[in-house]
Amino acid sequence: MRKSLSLIALVGALVTLGACNTTTEEKAGAGAVGGAIVGGPVGAAVGGAAGAIAGHVQNDSEKPHV
Asked: Which of 7, 12, 15 is nearest to 38 (CA)?
């Protein structure tokens, strides 16, 4: 139980740090670090991809729609 709570707190902290990034590269980097901590090399790849996608979505939402 203690290990699960620690993992949840760590993931929450990483998500909070990921929200502070402004560029797609920073979001991908934060996702990769968070994924590596939680899931090892596979987690790093998945976290980096998720961060990159989140960065692109945020950049697209800030553009004016014509």
From this structure: 7
